[in-house]
Inverse folding.
């Protein structure tokens, strides 16, 4: 717990909040798992990041701010924060421990739950140091790099008059705790390309990336 508090840059008054932030629903009731903290943490980080962006980019238009916001609060970015803080080893799960603790969705959920726990225990004053430490280094990213692969593929397809990409779920495997989705992306005149992920969103992004990589667009 001391290591986690050090990474979160905050000492909890209500330790049970911190414990709950790392408890997966597979080994607890809904009330005692991280899901409710994740719910509020998602809203809190969204607001804090939006506030940071307004200060950092005073001349940016709403569209650029929205793209930067999406890039920062998406699951892949939050999972990287969890990895940098070594949160995976603290997550309490009932089975498939190693696999679940490296799951992008679970890692990002835990970061949101931690932010929810920080907020519930100490308000925005407790949240800001942790968020700013991990978010500020991400703000210098080139705007072109902020566009997700689905957006980049759509822009490329429209620019070259291929029409809109079509995404189709072709397979769902795994169990309830760890589903794996396979999604195809189709563009007229090209072979379909698939991608896999722990959510439909992740699989769609992966299929768009695989399409662009395979056809030497990126």
């Amino acid at each position: 717990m001391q290591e986690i508090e050090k990474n979160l840059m905050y000492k909890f008054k209500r330790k049970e909040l911190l414990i709950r932030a790392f408890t997966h629903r597979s080994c607890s009731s809904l009330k005692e798992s991280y899901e409710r903290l994740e719910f509020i943490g998602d809203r809190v980080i969204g607001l804090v990041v939006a506030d940071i962006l307004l200060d950092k980019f005073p001349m940016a238009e709403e569209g650029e701010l929205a793209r930067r916001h999406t890039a920062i609060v998406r699951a892949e970015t939050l999972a990287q924060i969890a990895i940098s803080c070594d949160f995976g080893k603290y997550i309490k799960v009932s089975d498939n421990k190693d696999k679940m603790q490296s799951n992008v969705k679970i890692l990002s959920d835990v970061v949101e739950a931690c932010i929810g726990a920080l907020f519930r225990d100490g308000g925005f004053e407790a949240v800001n140091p942790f968020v700013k430490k991990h978010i500020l280094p991400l703000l210098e990213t080139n705007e072109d790099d902020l566009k997700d692969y689905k957006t980049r593929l759509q822009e490329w397809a429209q620019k070259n008059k291929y029409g809109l990409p079509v995404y189709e779920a072709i397979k769902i495997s795994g169990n309830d705790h760890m589903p794996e989705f396979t999604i195809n992306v189709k563009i007229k005149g090209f072979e379909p390309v698939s991608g896999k992920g722990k959510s439909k969103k992740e699989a769609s992004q992966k299929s768009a990336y695989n399409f662009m990589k395979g056809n030497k667009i990126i």
Remarks:
- The CA atoms of residues 39 and 113 lie 7 Å apart.
